[in-house]
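Weekly modeling sync, notes
Attendees: AB, CL, MP (scribe)

Item 1: holo prediction request
CL wants a bound-state model with zinc ion before deciding which constructs to order. AB pointed out that an apo prediction alone won't tell us much about the pocket. Agreed to run with the ligand included and paste results into these notes for async review.

Input as submitted:
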Amino acid sequence: MYLRWKTWKCPYCQAHWETQFFPGPIQLGADVVQCVKCGSNFRTGRMEWPEMSKSQKRTYLWQSLVIFGVLLILLIAYIAYLDYRNDSLISSERYELTTYFLYYGAIVYCASAVVMLTLKGMMIRESKSRHTERTGSFDRK
Ligand SMILES: [Zn+2]
């Protein structure tokens, strides 16, 4: 299975800052953070919600749903492939199993999408308050 992750380190002292799995192209968060070890400020390449353009916001909301959807489809395809290779199953059973996995896959996907969007909503709220704190102005974008 194809796993991806990205580790952020302080560029001054190499202290580990954060590891993220399946990072998307758009990262929500503080642009500049302070290293807990050496106290240096460094840029993360991230953006706060009010700083993003409309298309960046859309990408941010959809990227993890797309990544998760692709992983789930690959998993279902793999399970279906194992079913088809299993000679002890008759063809109607194979068909039933595949339908079963597609059906439950769809349910798992919808439930996860709701959870992911809820979590993102919470992160966006945090991002907005961080941004307001820093700029001292309320951005209604
Ligand atoms: Zn550091």
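Recorded for review: The longest helix spans residues 91-135.
Action items: CL to compare against the apo run; MP to circulate these notes.
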